[in-house]
Amino acid sequence: MKLRAIQGIRHIRALPLAPMVATAVTGTGRIASARERKSQYLYSAEIIGYKPKAGLHLRGRCSYSTNTSNTNSAGWKTTIGLELHVQLTAAQKLFSTASAKWDDSPNTNINMADAGLPGSLPRLNPQCIELAARAILGLNGQVQPMTSFDRKHYFYSDQPLGYQITQQLHPIGRGGFIELGPADGFQYTKKVRIHQLQLEQDTAKSIHGVYPGYVLTDLNRAGVALIEIVSEPDLETAEEASCFVRKMQTLLRHIGVSNCNMEEGSIRCDVNVSVYQKGKDRLSGTRCELKNLNSLKVIRGAIDTEVARQIDLISRGQVVEQETRGFDARGNKTFLVRSKEAAPDYRYIADPDIPAIRISNGWINKVRSALPELPEATRARLQVQYGLLQEDVETMINEPGCVQFFEQSANGRDPKRVSSWITSEIFGQLSYRTQNFADTPLTVVQLCDLLDSLASDSITSAQAKQLLINFMDGDRRSAQELIQEHGWKIMDDQAQLNDLVSKILDEHPKEVAGYLKGQKRRLNFFVGKAMEETKGQARPQDISRIVKQLLDARSK
Amino acid sequence: MSLLFLLRSSQRIPFKSALPQIKLLRRQQLSSHSTPLTSCQAIDSIEQSNSTLNAFVSYRTKDDIAKSEPQNGPLKGWPVGIKANIAMTTASTTCASKVLEGYTSPFKATAVEALEKAGAVIVGKTNMDEFGMGSKNLYSKYGPARNPFRPDDTVGTEIYDYSPGGSSGGSGAAVAAGMCRVALGSDTGGSVRLPGAWCGIVGYKPTYGRISRYGLVPYGSSLDTVGIMARTVEDVLSTFKAICIPDHRDMTCMSESLRKRINDMAKSRPWVNKLYEVSPGESLEIKQPLKGMRIGIPRECWVEELSEPALESWKAGARRLADLGCEIVAVSLPHLPYSLPTYYTIALAEASSNLARYDGIRYGRRSSEKPDDLHNCNASNKYANTRSEGFGVEVQRRILLGTYVLSAQTCEQYYIPSQKIRRLIQQDFDSVFALPNALHAESALAKSRLLTSRPAGVDALLFPTSTNTARLLESKEKNQAAGYVNDVMTVPANLAGIPAISVPAGKKNGMPLGLQLSAQYGDDELLLRIASHLQQ
Predict the structure, then answer these.
(1) A58 exposed, middle or buried (CB, 10 Å; 0-12, 13-18, 19+)?
(2) What distances in angstroms separate CA A31 from CA A38, A427, B506, one per listed residue?
(3) What is the phi/psi pair of residue A82, to 5°?
(4) What integer pLDDT is reported at residue A491 of this predicted model?
(5) Which positions ≥6 away from A244 have C-beta within 8 Å?
(6) Residue of A9, A120, A211 to mutate when probing chain B, most B C-beta within 10 A
(7) Which residue does chain A place closest to B209, by CA atoms?
(8) Residues of B in contact with A161 (CB under 8 A)
(9) Is B105 among the catalytic positions?
């Protein structure tokens, strides 16, 4: 039920639309602006030939040094544990039938229970239980046979019930791990264990500063399902921590549990950091919690900064206090948010409105068998079965749907050629359009047509790239139809090409002389000129051969 | 052999009445209404006596009622009162609290919906203790409700200064004064049974989960039940049948399959089936309609605070059941003495949690006072004014106590042991009833299937509803805890989630007394049938 229809409610002030659209509705905004720029990128060679560099692509893999010694001063070691809050893809909220689309117009996706109306009761959404079970199974952990919900109390305007429904005592998942290894750029292999995985409610959104003196509340997000994944303190460097988060994102996207988009807040990261002197117990340091780290870069920066701060404090004979800190990325420093004394007493209590849930082995097995192949297995298989480069595998595996797209396209074709087209050409386009792979209208059939036309020499690679742009713009016609429309054909009349090249050589005596003196790279200049002249309809290798022949003839 | 002896003895001794058979009343005499109350008559009585009794906090006019024809159903035309903490769309749902001043719910409670579907006419909302917290209906933003009964020596005056009991005091007074035929209350620790006893009517708390809590504003969610108050057990039964339905909106409401499992178990008792075969009216002709039933007298209910009149009515009730053919045995519930502190720990802990949402932000009353410094105070300070002004003194006391028992240092000292004792109390009840507890799943069902002969154990328990007759509204308690002692007889049923009913059991100096019957989890139908014979 839309809140507007609820008479008993007041005091919820709607936000002016403009700032919400500008900040939150990123997806559609981006696509529209990319369309407007279409005319610019159509003929832009850099864009067509763009190959995503590691770390630059929106969803690409991050690169970092394989030097694992970190920035730690000599004699110091670091212990890191992570808490990840991940929004589930469930269509409805955790305890209500309201839509989980938190970025809709403010205060429209609300049910009685989300607004905490007197007499309303929570009703568990079974889809959330299934998604959480998928997540823990995907992490190689165990779904618990009995799970229950608790109330965590604190007063805040983004908390309509006065408590958050979470799982303190009996979380749905325990155990499991994520493995970091050479494939991730490390020179060693380590398992980072998962302590527990629990379901909980997201809070409403507080909006400060729009109306002076007021804090606005948007309840759309209140009650949206989250899972909190708590790692064991097995991590030791900022690189490991950020890699752990990246691999978690990949996994959860792959098994359809979450979009894991950090910018939109569908995955949020808190980090616990402590330092200890070499030779002492790993957990002997006092930990500080760093909250609200919203990108992989920020996670790395915050950890390194905090480690340096703690070492500095101890070195100067001071004590690290257990506290919650934030990270100022611009000033590159962490700051105090809340000391331990100010930490609220959450007064956990088993939620009496929600009975404990028993989960049978049969059900768990059903969920397990519905899981897709996990990224680690896919990664190994792609390298062995298709002989792909590790880098290409990483690029594809991080985009939902991409591996499947590749495998369908590679059927009966040269897999390396297919993967190279996907990772260079298609991802180049996606990157320019700031689109995700899942959003592109390009189909397997279109790519196969394109590659087959190219392989049978009916088009040149420049034409093929233009074809790809048409497809990714949403043109649904076949490759053949488009080739016909463009009037493309290969220019392979040798006599005609000979005349054309001779003419070019005659027009550029200076360059010819240079070549003959030994400036062999001038060859490319003539090829380029000839390709320009033929409007890309000739095969570059043909032109190159003819240019060489004619130049060699002139040298004699 | 006296009841006292029975209570003191350590063995189970069959109780035999030494008195001659009590002449059974005929059905017509059982029902207080010679002709059923109409909604017009109900409104007349409300208009006439509500200014004195303050039973209704809002009620409809005759014109308003005449506008719509009640739906066809078993309760067609029955005037019904609804406690002020049960959500309705047509009248405000304030829980008698300032914090919900003017709040009208956008949705209807499942029980209200079912009542209307059965043809009931809702005449108004009844007074109560704020959020159900109280035993005298004293703590209400509308002022106290008053008991229509007065001691013999004040009859003829205009003085009504006795409490109707709480927290559903308005519902109790309304039914007793003929302002409605049936009223819904809520029972967290005795809130329909105590007013039932003090107002001389029937107050019934069903098994936890029988009636959906959707739309009942929670006090202690694990203890709360919607309760039914009426003049006769028959009216209670008809109402119960109309609203005892599964509801997917309340996860703690019994599922269809659990209801069926309980029903199968309950019907598997050969010694009980006889009772189901005859309708309550017919059975009055039978000399010993309850022959074969075994009733337990819990020793631990004979508490120090029990007054002489209450003890006398308890004895009389036991005698009456014996005359009806019941076998009376003494039973022991060893953990019962701990039930009062256990109840107050759990109920208040849950209350502090359930009432956390009343912050004046989304609905209800918001304090007009601004915090001193908007920017330098945390969120809870901003709520402090609203909550301090909106909640009454007793609610504030209970929220603070509940917050205390859940705090980090005290939780393990109070809250967690209370949960354990609650389990022991449940087990005590399971150990005395012949019927197994359906919640303990398959093994219980298997056991019940094997029942060929009558097992040990009782079918119902009999004990007083309250330690004494109604108290004066103005009476000062020695300390706050003394006020809580009123609940000593009623809270065990809430802790165990089992059904319990208070039926009128005579008067002392013009003031009514009540007797309580309780049965195994889910055994509501048997309980109501036994109660219909006990009522006088």
Answers:
(1) middle
(2) 11, 15, 80
(3) -120, 150
(4) 77
(5) A82, A178, A180, A192, A231, A235
(6) A120
(7) A353
(8) 356-357
(9) no
The backbone torsions φ and ψ at residue A97, rounded to the nearest 5 degrees and listed phi first, read: -95, 5
Question: Under an 8 A CB cutoff, do B250 and A121 touch?
Answer: yes
Taking alpha carbons only, the member of B399, B379, B358, B356 closest to residue A11 is B358
Per the model's pLDDT, the better-predicted residue between A470 and A37 turns out to be: A470
Q: Which domain holds residue B173?
A: 1-536
User: What is the pTM (predicted TM-score) of this model?
Assistant: 0.81
Which of A1, A118, A157 shows the shortest C-beta gap to B93? A118
Q: What is the pLDDT of residues B143-167, one digit of tens each?
A: 999 999 988 887 777 778 899 998 9
Q: Which amino acid does the sequence have at B480?
A: Q
Q: Which positions 86-105 of B are in contact with A (Cβ < 8 Å)?
A: 86-87, 93, 95, 100, 103-105
Q: Which of A2, A347, A353, A354 to mutate to test the interface with B (most CBs of B within 10 A)?
A: A347
Comparing alpha-carbon positions, the chain A residue that sits nearest to B95 is A118
Residue B51 and residue B351 in contact, taking contact as beta carbons nearer than 8 Å: no
Q: Residue with structure tokens 């730690």?
A: A72
Closest CB to B215 among A7, A119, A153:
A119
Measure the CA–CA gap between A372 and A378, rounded to whole angstroms.
10
B66 exposed, middle or buried (CB, 10 Å; 0-12, 13-18, 19+)?
exposed
Comparing B10 with A241, which gets the higher pLDDT? A241
CA dist., res. A375 & res. A398, Å (int): 9
Nearest to A373 by CA among A360, A356, A385: A385
Nearest CB to B105 within list A8, A10, A121: A8
Residue B515 has pLDDT above 90, yes or no: yes
Counted domains in chain B: 1
Residue type, A332: N
Interface test with chain A among B362, B405, B495, by most A beta carbons within 10 Å: B362
Chain B residue with CA closest to A156: the answer is B379
DSSP assigned state of B125: E
Please name which of A439, A460, A472 lies closest in space to residue A539, comparing C-alpha atoms. Answer: A460
What distance in Å separates the CA atoms of residue A489 and residue A536, rounded to the nearest whole number? 10
B117 in contact with chain A, both atoms CB, cutoff 8 A: no
Report yes or no: B410 at the A interface, CB cutoff 8 Å.
Answer: no
CATH code for the domain in which residue B363 is found: 3.90.1300.10
In SS3 terms, B327-342 reads as: EEEEECCCCHHHHHHH
Alpha helices in A111-261 (DSSP H): 126-138, 238-254
User: Does A355 sit within 8 Å of B251, measured CB to CB?
Assistant: yes
Tell me the CA distances in angstroms from B92 to B108, B132, B192, one per residue in order: 11, 16, 21
For B87, residues 6+ apart whose C-beta sits below 8 A from its C-beta are A118, A119, B93, B105, B107, B108, B109, B112, B215, B216, B217
Residue with tokens 């190279």: A420
d(CA A255, CA A478) in angstroms, rounded, equals: 32
pLDDT at B381 (0 to 100):
67
Least confident residue range of B153-162, B361-370, B385-394, B418-427 = B153-162
Write out the two tokens for A294.
């919203």
Bridge partners, residue B58, by sequence: B125
Whether the Cβ atoms of residue A125 and residue A90 lie closer than 8 Å to each other: yes
Sign of CA dihedral A524, A530, A532, A534: negative
- Which chain A residue is nearest to residue B349, measuring alpha carbons? A349
Q: What is the C-alpha to C-alpha distance for residues B524 and B448, in angstroms, rounded to an integer?
A: 17
- Subunit contact A347:B403, Cβ cutoff 8 A: yes
ipTM rounded to 2 decimals: 0.90
| Main-chain phi, psi angles of A534, to 5 degrees | -85, 5
pLDDT at A542: 83
